[in-house]
Amino acid sequence: MSFKIQFLKNHFDNILSLPFSFSNTLSELVNQYYKENKQLGSKDRKVLSELVFTYFRYKNIINLDDKIVESNNFEFFFIISYEVLNKSDTFHYILAEWEKYWVKYDEFEKNYIYKLLISMTFENIIFSKINKSYNFENKLDIKRLFTKSPTTIRPAYSHDNINNLKYTLKNNDIGFYENSNLSSLDIYSFSNINSLMESNDIKIEIQDNASLIVSKYISELSQMNKFDYILDACAGSGGKSLAVKYYSSNSKIDLFDNNLTRLYEFNNRNNNFNDLNLITAKNDLKKYDLIFIDAPCTGSGTFRRHPDKLHTINKNIIDNYVKMQKDVLDTYSKYLKENGILIYITCSLFNEENIDVINSFIRDNPLFIPEPITNHLITDNSIKITNFAYQLIPNNYNGDIFFISQLKMKESKWSLSITKSIPSGIKNM
Q1: Are residues 215 and 257 in the same domain?
Q2: Which of 214, 265, 281, 326 satisfies CB 3.0 to 4.6 Å to 237 for a cystine?
């Protein structure tokens, strides 16, 4: 038996036993495990991570109680992971070792594992975490959902075009990537991403394709309506605002987040856009043409990158986020101009965090009305929930699942009565 394969298999079993939870994620525990096991080299860690996360990606749909599969967990997930691992520039080192290890199995066991793998018909999988009311099972590229998302990169600034980025990839020995129609690239090489980010050739942003679709849509909306001021209400470290500017919006954007530590990270990301402004306190007198809220949520739509989420989210966690989301909407909607646009975004799969929150907000705030989304950037990449709410799904793009909804603030009766009472000559001043 190959020592290297047995070595990896032992660590694989150890990692599967780690007590991860929603607040203590598998990624955090795995990284800690690697720190505590210095004998694991960088290539070992990359292969192990792919095998472990593939395990949790498929755990719900494979009968792991079956005695043969249970005894061969490592082998089974090695086979499932092969396609992704084979794209990695670190994987070749272990292939010869795998062949030596695999030879020890008799033909019955080999045939059984392969037969089970082939018999997994993705079209018949009932993915219990997805709301059936969306009819996802008829429209999703299910096989893509059960593979790892690529790392999506783009130039940080519009003047650094994709050809410059491809040149940078070549300089960093990253040859396997796919073009995107979002002026970005999807890369699958695992080992050189750090050197790429540290490269001086071109400044690079990592951002999921679903996030880029939403950002590009906001940019196009602001250009079409010639919006002057936008508020990025839950800005984090500013990734979406940077992408909105990358796609050529001329609007001035204020960024705010309650987590000032994350917000201040934006200063390290932005070296080019002068009309992006961090605000650390809300100005009650300032109103915006457009406010977009990337609301705190369970992150269930990111399960391709974080498959452990599907095993840790429960009703209490969802309910806590719903309360936060309603508070966030109530807080930031007050800063919207009349006739302004409010966009609500999550990376969640759950109705409770998405359309239910929006419907509740509309019921409680009659000045806000549904605003239909007609832009093909959203409609062509989504499942339609209603004409003002869509769930982005990775059929035509390779990334996470997002929810987006759009509302408009009506003119109040008070404003209308004031306007009617003003002579026309004064109105046009």
Answers
A1: yes
A2: 265
Query: DSSP H helical segments within 258-338, as ranges?
Result: 260-264, 266-269, 315-332
At 385, give phi and psi (nearest 5°). Answer: -90, -50
Residues 62 and 193 in one domain: no
Residue type, 344: Y
- Choose among 206, 201, 168, 203: nearest CA to 186: 206
Residue 131 maps to a domain: no
Statement to judge: residues 173 and 219 lie in one domain: no
Mean pLDDT of 281-290: 92
The b/e string for 285-311 (b: 16+ C-beta within 10 A; e otherwise) is eebbbbbbbbbbbbbbbbbbbbbbbbe
More confident residue, 346 or 426: 346
The residue among 163, 191, 206 that closes a domain is 206
Q: How many helices (H) and strands (E) does the chain have?
A: 19, 13
Are 362 and 260 part of one and the same domain?
Answer: yes
Residue 197, domain CATH: 3.30.70
Rg (CA), the chain: 24
Pair (228, 377) in one structural domain: yes
Least confident of 135-149, 254-268, 299-313: 135-149
- Candidates 401, 399, 397, 403; CA nearest to 385 is 403
Angle between helices 355-364 and 315-332 (to 10 degrees): 40
